[in-house]
Amino acid sequence: MATTCTRPGVVLAVCCVSVFIVGMDSSILNVALPSIQHVFGASISGAQWTLDAYTLTLASFLMLSASTADRIGRRKVFQTGLAVFTTGSLLCSLAPSLEWLIIFRVIQAVGGSMLNPVAMSIITNTFTEPRARARAIGAWGGVVGVSVAAGPLIGGALVEFIDWRAVFWVNVPIGIAAFILAMRDVPESKAPHRRKFDPAGQILVVGTVFLLTFGIIEAPHTGWGSPQIVLCLFASVACLIALIFVELHKSEPLVDVRFFKAPPFAGATSIALILFTAQGGFLILNTLYLQDIRGFSPLEAGVSILPMPALMAIFGPISGRVVGRYGPRPSMLLGSTGSICAGLLAAIPPELPTGIRMYVCYALMGFGIGWLNAAITTTAVSGMPNAQAGVAAGITSTMRQTGVTLGVAIIGSVLATHVTVLAPGPAYSAAYRICWAIITTCGVLVLIIGLITTGRWAQRAVYRQVSKHPMEKIWHP
Q: What is the pLDDT of residues 155-207, one digit of tens each?
């Protein structure tokens, strides 16, 4: 059920702006971490939680928000998300301690979880012509990627010229303006079939992501072999297995495991997880490197990373058009190759990257992620019925945010395992190269999965599946 949209361009702009501030806030605190550590006397682990509390909450509740929006109304949930996110941002700027900042970040993320997948669902229901939809999704996907990468630049300027609290003030006027425009221009729509609430699925999603993240972040302090960490990791795997079992036996699951029968969808979601693990790890690694090792100011650190978001902004929309005309395979190949070259250039030489080599690494990362992001989004929702657009987009967005969460946790854990204080030296150099090796490995995995799931075998598998079971029957037994 949907009302007619008279201004689709405005709808796309509102969705992109709203998603931009949500993505930006998953990385904007990176350059502010030294300031927050100083003000609150926080450890590296404590500072990590100001990042991961946000991305972890986003990853945990995106699916619930997507299915709720399909059930009760997408514009209604979208506006609620804007209101909660804006309020949470204001509270973060007033936080009196690290603990309160983490709590307010959770509130902020609950609102943000109502924006990403719901915005995608609004776009897919507004733009119904395939090429127009591909271009719109390309623009949206480009904004999603750029938002995460632009966070350090915007945050660096605000921290240097005003205060670390200013990184949250910027969201308030944007959130209010987006709320008003959404009320006026975004059409209300619902899925024809109202999905039931799935509390067991939601609890298991939260358990899987939280226990895994907690174990990775805390392992350097308690030891990877400690009972606490081993129990967390095993419990995370148990929650994942239970999630798959429970959702397979529900007629209307929160996470429809049957979506993964389609190789392109399974590939797109896997690539989203791996790619954003690399991006989240890249951002925390290099913002800390530039400030703590190179001695850059927050603004200088943000400007230094600028080649990454700049090239993402350029190649994201181009990738959307290429995907709309030629399919996702060319974008997958170009993007993964760019990220692999960035990692090799940074990790292989014995000395830490400086000068031109450092900026080329950042540019190659932006080039790669810009090409990949639009391809991921388009591939994930292609072939899906409009009624399930929110759920499909929710799974993809969940994978993105889970990736950012894991990237921060894994790279932070590697650094904390090798050094207690971030300072130049052989120990830090070794840790830095290990981190870049992890990022490079992510690029290789993206290339392999992209080749497999966008080839002729994948297309034939989808054709056979749809021939045997029409798409609506696959998703609605």
A: 888 888 888 889 899 899 999 998 998 888 888 877 666 667 788 888 888 88
346 and 402, same domain (yes or no): yes
H helices of 162-306, where? 166-169, 171-185, 199-222, 227-248, 263-288, 298-304
Closest alpha carbon to 159 in 264, 300, 258, 362: 300
Q: Is-contact 284 47, C-beta < 8 A?
A: no
Angle at 231 between CA 228 and CA 233, to 5 degrees: 110
Rounded to two decimals, what is the model's pTM? 0.78
- Regarding whether 225 and 313 lie in a shared domain, the answer is no
Question: Which structural domain, as residue segments, surrounds residue 231?
Answer: 199-249
Q: How far apart are CA 235 and CA 253, in angstroms?
A: 21
Q: Are both 350 and 447 inside the same structural domain?
A: yes
SS3 assignment, position 258: helix
- Top-ranked range on mean pLDDT: pick from 4-18, 114-128, 158-172, 197-211: 158-172
Pair of tokens at residue 194? 């109202």
CA atoms within 13 A on the CB side of 288: 26
Nearest to 215 by CA among 202, 224, 203, 206: 224
pLDDT at 469 over 50: no
Considering its fold, how many domains does the chain have in total? 2
